[in-house]
């Protein structure tokens, strides 16, 4: 059965899969290695022949990972006996090439080779990578024990390949080359392609703490699956020829083609991201971000590039497009973010850096205060007051997100208790982060905190944003229903800035909708803007919500909103967020004289 060319059973797609498996091993065109040469020497010795090789079958060449007695590093695949071994998956013995109809005219046959024996190099998945072969310049018979030895040695070559694959170069989960391989390849490209410009891209499936908290709840197997699925999706997007590196649990890196334009490439990435996100339960989901770093082979330092990639991917989580291109200015921002995050842990312990301010919420018809929103403030020992809009999104995305909410919640409950003891019955609203809604027992912890501080559930309102709920809707809804059953009021914060429809939000057991200040700011602009707010109010009322306008800065805005039937308002027109003493002074003139204020009154009478 000495065949030439592709056997009938071998399909083109089977060959593509085989080539993909071979390329994934990253063995082709790598330098010689003693561990393979040792086996080749042994094969030559056993057969007492001058030529032996570990020959890998690429698309149209036989490339020698190890060779003895051969000058070339490769020969054409066409009419190469090793190519036949690959195509058939069988051992091939050609006792005399000169007498063989097919191989007499082959390159080897023409160059004086008479004898060939080759054993297939087969992976566990059944892909034949090539052959371990011995060749001689005289016709020769083969003994059975020689055949056995050749097959054993071929198995040793495969063990060696698997060993390299498993240790140090490949990620066992994704089967993709890892960070060490990326570094080595970049080192090679610095020599071979010096001066070529490209983009390196890091795909971050989700920030590690997200993944950690998700895996605490649902276990690590789905995360493994997520990583494998993501690897598959990237392969589809990027094609077989692109090397994708798996550099950390949820991070992949790949390089753009050489010399592509930035705008066109970002366009490609953006389309790829949008398309995959639309897929049902796609592994490349809403928490995925792309960090992009321009590089020039031979000039860009590889370690520095990886740091820049991490920095850009981290930044990308804060951008609307989820794609961020590295720049020096961004690096500055990133360093400050990193510093803030590191220092926030100290701030939680310090006792004098974090405090709560209170912004009153006022009934529009009677201009009486019914409660307040608790807002966190941080005075950093070096940076001074850090804007909440700067540090809160950073902390919320980190492992300290939970501690942040606990700090605000406990401070608010202590304050409610103190006010109650002083005869002041108020309701306080506390902002809840997305990370709280994916916690295992958020509702239970709120219940314990209420009990510990002896505050009734009705005195507490929790504000959630649409996006926080959407991150892990199933778990979020579970918590929100439990909190609602306890009697805690729920408000949809920053309403109108998310992407969800009111119909979707109806699933939430919320009582209050807080219209985002962006809409209120536009009230003076024109009739269209006013119509929008009027419709938001009436639609919310129709669905049974109480409506609060955020960011009311002027008397006319308050009046317009009152005319539109908006229930309550919050904003600088009434009061800025106030320190506790200032709030108490302000309250003295803005609450019902005798018994406290608003809806909270009935609720807090224990
Ligand atoms: P938010 O929950 O929508 O809070 C309202 C924000 O609007 C506050 O900003 C408040 O100071 C500001 N504001 C109120 N009235 C006006 C006004 O008339 N004009 C203008 N221009 N702004 C007004 P702040 O305190 O800077 O907080 C910003 C955001 O940070 C908050 O938006 C909230 O998302 C977050 N945040 C603040 N404190 C906490 C907290 O304790 N926990 C969590 N998770 N997030 C918080
Ligand atoms: Mg809020
Ligand atoms: Mg808001």
From TrEMBL:
SUPFAM superfamilies: EAL domain-like, GAF domain-like, Nucleotide cyclase. PROSITE patterns: EAL. It holds the Pfam family EAL. InterPro entries: Cyclic-di-GMP_PDE-like, EAL_dom, EAL_sf, GAF, GAF-like_dom_sf, Nucleotide_cyclase, Rev_trsase/Diguanyl_cyclase. CDD domains: EAL. Residues 337-591 form the EAL domain. Gene3D superfamilies: 3.30.450.40, 3.30.70.270, EAL domain. This is GGDEF and EAL domain-containing protein. It comes from Teichococcus vastitatis.
